Every structure is written in C-alpha cells, then in structure tokens.
C-alpha cells in the first residue's frame, strides 16, 4: 500500500485482473446421426450441466514468491526474498478459513510467520465485502503473537475497481503492537485488453510503533500462462531511521490451484 494520491484519484475517476475462463466443446455425432438428434443430445447435456448443484466447498492452494516481504510498507524479511504459500477452504455460504505463511527476518529467535484467518465474504448490491479475524503467529516467539480484525470493501467503477480497508488491533496481553488501527484505499485499472492492470494503494497506520505512518504502492499486475506477476514501487513516511521502511521495488510471482 504505497506520488500515489493522484493515481488513486485517476482510478476513482475512471471507474488483488480477472483470470480468463475456458470452455471445451465436444461432439460425438456420427455420420449416420441426424441433426435433430444431435440438437436434442446437446439440449439434454446443457440441462444436466445447469442442474448440477454447486460444490459446497472449494479449496485453493496459492504459491507465491516475492523479492521482499513488505507489510504495510515496511520490510519484514530484511529486504530479502520470501516464499509465501497459503491454503484456503471456502464454503458456498461465504464463510472461509485460510492459513498463510512467510519467512521473515529473525524475529525474537524465529524466522517464520503464520497467519490463521477466519472470515466471511459476500456481495451487498454492487459492493464486495470481506470481514475476518487474523491471528499472527510467530512460532518460538509467543510474546509477538497477536489478533487483528480486518474489513475490506471493493466496487467496480467502469473498468476499474476501487476498494478500502480498515483493520483494528485490540489491546492484548504480551502482544506487539498493543493496540492500533490501519485504514487505506486501493485501486486497479486494466490497461485495455493487454491483460495488464495498473495498481495502487495508500494507507495510514497508527499504533505503539508508528504515529500516523503512511505507506503507498504503485505498480502493475498481470496474468501470464496461469501465473500472477507483479511489480510495485513501495514506500513509507516512516522516519525513524529504519532502512526497512525505505522506498523500494517489490517483484512477485504466484500460481493458484483450485480444486
């Protein structure tokens, strides 16, 4: 979430690239079967497909590699690459659970972060809504584990999509940060039929560590041969002398598998 306000304004005035769907047609007609029979068979097939009930559960495995793990503008991997797998189980009701992981810079004797997420996603009119509770776990450094409650909304405006996020970290024992809020806006604008989209975000964080820290991103995303590609310029207003908050470019490569 990271020159920035102008871009988001453009996204708002114009209007996380949809993957294309593929269909396969098959014909079993022989030379001695008339056209009427073929049409009837096709109609029966379509009716069967339409009547097939939706699966109650869907499962998705996502494997992503990033050149730098940035969390709200600040590098948590000491500007080193990170591998970030996730597994999500979604119910047709909108309820879902997810496990996400990443390597991080050594943090209290540990170099792994695991996020346990439980949430609900739905559409209200033309607005997509997602609310969840996320538990950040750092094995071997229990005093750093903490809860956060996150809500996001997104809405299509023309070809573009604009969205917002609000996160609240309540007071917790043996937890860092003790309490805080984060809120921001984001947008995505497809560049014609190229399969490439312009992305941008801007956020503000206020907690025990940061006093109204601002972060922003501006970049591109694309879907190529089933892979998700991304490149973004990331920055923050963090002025504590920590180089992990300095501006930089982050590259990403991911692949999702649904079953």
Summarize this, please?
The chain is mainly beta and 259 residues long. It has two helices and 14 strands, in the order H-H-E-E-E-E-E-E-E-E-E-E-E-E-E-E.
What does this structure look like?
The chain is mainly beta. It has a single domain (5-13, 66-258), classed as Beta Barrel (Porin). Helices cover 10% and strands 54% of the residues. The chain is built from 2 helices and 14 strands, in the order ααββββββββββββββ. The protein has helices at 5-14, 35-51; strands at 57-66, 70-71, 74-75, 82-91, 95-107, 110-124, 127-137, 146-157, 160-169, 180-190, 196-207, 213-224, 227-236, 248-258. The strands form 2 sheets. It has a 12-stranded antiparallel barrel with strand order 1-4-5-6-7-8-9-10-11-12-13-14. Mean pLDDT is 83; it is low at 1-33.
List the helices and strands and how they pair.
Layout: H1 5-14, H2 35-51, E1 57-66, E2 70-71, E3 74-75, E4 82-91, E5 95-107, E6 110-124, E7 127-137, E8 146-157, E9 160-169, E10 180-190, E11 196-207, E12 213-224, E13 227-236, E14 248-258
Antiparallel strand pairs: 1-4, 1-14, 2-3, 4-5, 5-6, 6-7, 7-8, 8-9, 9-10, 10-11, 11-12, 12-13, 13-14
């Amino acid at each position: 979430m990271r020159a920035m306000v102008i871009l988001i304004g453009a996204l708002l005035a114009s209007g996380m690239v949809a993957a294309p769907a593929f269909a396969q047609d098959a014909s079993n007609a022989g030379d001695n079967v008339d056209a009427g029979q073929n049409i009837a068979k096709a109609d029966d097939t379509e009716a069967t497909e339409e009547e097939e009930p939706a699966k109650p559960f869907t499962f998705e495995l996502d494997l992503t590699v990033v050149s730098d793990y940035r969390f709200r503008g600040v590098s948590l991997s000491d500007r080193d690459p990170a591998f970030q797998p996730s597994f999500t189980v979604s119910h047709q009701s909108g309820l879902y659970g997810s496990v996400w992981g990443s390597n991080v810079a050594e943090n209290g004797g540990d170099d792994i972060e695991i996020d346990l997420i439980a949430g609900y996603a739905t559409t209200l009119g033309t607005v997509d809504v997602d609310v969840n509770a996320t538990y950040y776990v750092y094995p071997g450094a229990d005093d750093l584990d903490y809860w956060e409650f996150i809500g996001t909304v997104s809405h299509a405006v023309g070809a573009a999509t604009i969205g917002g996020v609000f996160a609240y970290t309540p007071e917790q024992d043996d937890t860092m940060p003790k309490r805080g809020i984060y809120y921001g806006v984001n947008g995505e604008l497809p560049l014609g039929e190229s399969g490439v989209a312009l992305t941008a975000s801007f956020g503000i964080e206020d907690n025990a560590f940061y006093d109204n820290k601002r972060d922003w991103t501006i970049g591109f995303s694309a879907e190529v041969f089933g892979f998700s590609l991304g490149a973004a310029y990331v920055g923050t207003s963090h002025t504590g002398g920590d180089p992990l908050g300095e501006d930089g470019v982050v590259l990403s490569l991911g692949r999702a598998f649904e079953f």
